[in-house]
Amino acid sequence: MPNEPSEPGRSSSHLVLIPSYNPGPKVFATVRDALRVWAPVWVVIDGSTDESAQRLSAMAVAEPGLRVFVLPRNRGKGAAVLFGLRQAQACGFTHVLSMDSDGQHPVERIQAFMQASLARPDAMVLGCPVFDASAPALRVKGRQISNWWANLETLWAGIHDSLYGFRVYPVEALIAIMRRQLWMRRFDFDVEAVVRLCWHGVPPINLPAAVRYFSLEEGGVSHFNYWRDNVLLTWMHFRLFWGFILRLPLLGARRLLSKGGPPQGQNR
Ligand SMILES: Nc1nc2c(ncn2[C@@H]2O[C@H](COP(=O)(O)OP(=O)(O)O)[C@@H](O)[C@H]2O)c(=O)[nH]1
Ligand SMILES: [Mg+2]
Predict the structure, then answer these.
(1) Of all protein residues, whose CA lies closest to atom 3 belonging to ligand 1?
(2) Residue 9 domain flag
(3) How far apart are CA 106 and CA 87, in angstroms?
């Protein structure tokens, strides 16, 4: 495959995109580890007030595979991803693998996700979280609720997890969707992106990927606020539900044409 990097080469179609906001100490190892398996790696620093902008920019001087964008004001994860998508498109990239900056996502799965995307560029490759004992029960439960809604909203089009941010997105389709939406700019991004990409006709491929939750002592940081962000997610599912009702005839017809099975996507 011509676009696959031969370590430590560079892909000209697929890049790793890491949106980052006050990520805690794990960001440096996360970026370094990502660069060991893929290039390019881009970080979008979203109005962070810690020292990550300076330290990662300094790292980029010595690392040709790393590019760091520093945005002056915090606008949210979805807005930072959209910024990265637009830059990626301007540079000719067709796909981005988005991942968290705080060390929770498995860098060692980047290659497998990129391979799956290179083999099926029409699809999105979704991480299916494999939790260990570190996962808070409340987050796992909340996820099941969001997954149920996302599956209803897409008429069971094959989304295994609606919230996991470790994914490969087709750039053009996601920009086209986000351009028309005012929302999807904060923690409502991950769910709304998969649901709307499904509506858009982009099939999901689900691959397992471990997720870890770190304690404060281990350097874990979370900006997810249970009240604020659960209200945001509830409002998002309300909007998506009505979008689903409007699209029901189209989704139903698609479902019938796909002969009942969860569709186009593969699951490994
Ligand atoms: N650019 C940007 N990224 C964010 C923001 N908030 C979170 N993120 C990214 O989203 C990831 C997940 O957020 P986090 O706060 O760790 O939430 P949690 O993992 O769900 O508890 C982080 O690692 C960042 O990469 C934000 O305001 N701006
Ligand atoms: Mg996190």
Answers:
(1) 77
(2) no
(3) 25
Residue 190 in contact with ligand 1 by CB distance below 6 A: no
- What are the phi and psi torsion angles at 219 (to 5°)? 100, 15
* Residue 8 maps to a domain: no
Helix (H, G, I), strand (E, B) or coil at 46: strand
Other CB atoms closer than 10 Å to residue 134's CB: what's the count? 13
Supply the pTM of this predicted model: 0.93
- Quote the CA–CA distance of 59 and 126 in Å, as a whole number: 29
Domain that holds residue 201: 14-257
> What are 169's two structure tokens?
């997105």
**235 domain residue, yes or no:** yes
Ligand with smallest separation from the Cα of 53? 1
pLDDT in tens, 104-160: 999 999 999 999 999 999 999 999 999 999 999 988 888 999 999 999 999 999 999
- Any idea what the CATH number is for the domain that residue 162 is in? 3.90.550.10
Q: What is the C-alpha to C-alpha distance for residues 233 and 228, in angstroms, rounded to an integer?
A: 9
Is there an atom of ligand 1 within 6 Å of 104 CB? yes
Any domain includes 106 = yes
Number of domains in the chain: 1
Residue 79 CA: which ligand 1 atom is closest? 1
Q: How many of the other CB atoms lie within 10 Å of CB of 64?
A: 12
